[in-house]
């Protein structure tokens, strides 16, 4: 491999590895947020009052639909709250009037979301996995292609061959 190629690959892998660190940060934040909501939250039944459907078309002509539910629930003090999730997903296919289980923060009931593996852990685990892969690949390739430092013996051998 030519030195210019190795330098370009090292730079690319460094960028790749550096992209992994913020991805890991996002994963850690999402997991912390879920753990915080689970420890300070309450699980209650809620009624879906609206579902926003968003359909997007890909450049290849296919379509995908995501759903953003709005639900209503009563907190532990008897107050009613209406919350629309902050994100939309393709796996939430709720129907108006449907009863769902939500987890809400007792300190801030507007921080509520439907419960389940997908909403609680899937995205955090996926971003964590990608972050580990990006960082590991970037670091390993970067150091594997790092130029080896010349040892004193190498420079002495080189000087002998110059004569």
Which segments are poorly predicted (pLDDT under 50) over 5 or more consecutive residues?
none
Beginning-to-end CA distance, first to last residue: 28 Å
> Which shape, going by the Cα principal axes?
elongated
Gyration radius (Cα, Å) is 26 Å
What fraction, in percent, of the residue positions are helical? 40-55%
Strand content: 25-35%
Helical run tally: 3
Query: On the 0-100 scale, what is the average pLDDT?
Result: 81
Output the helix-strand order. Answer: HEEEEEHH
Strand-pairing-aware structural class? alpha+beta
Number of strands: 5
What's the assembly state of these chains?
Answer: single chain
Widest beta sheet: strand line-up: 3-2-1-4-5
Largest sheet: 5 strands, antiparallel
Secondary-structure topology with pairs:
Layout: H1 3-40, E1 41-57, E2 63-74, E3 80-84, E4 99-105, E5 112-114, H2 117-144, H3 152-162
Antiparallel strand pairs: 1-2, 1-4, 2-3, 4-5
Helix pairs in contact: 1-2
How would you portray this structure in words?
The chain is an alpha+beta fold. Helices cover 47% and strands 27% of the residues. The protein contains 3 helices and 5 strands; from the N terminus they run αβββββαα. The chain has helices at residues 3-40, 117-144, 152-162, and strands spanning 41-57, 63-74, 80-84, 99-105, 112-114. A 5-stranded antiparallel beta sheet has the order 3-2-1-4-5. Strand 2 and strand 3 (80-84) form a beta hairpin. Helix 1 (3-40) runs antiparallel to helix 2 (117-144). The longest helix has 38 residues, at 3-40. The chain is elongated, with a radius of gyration of 26 Å.
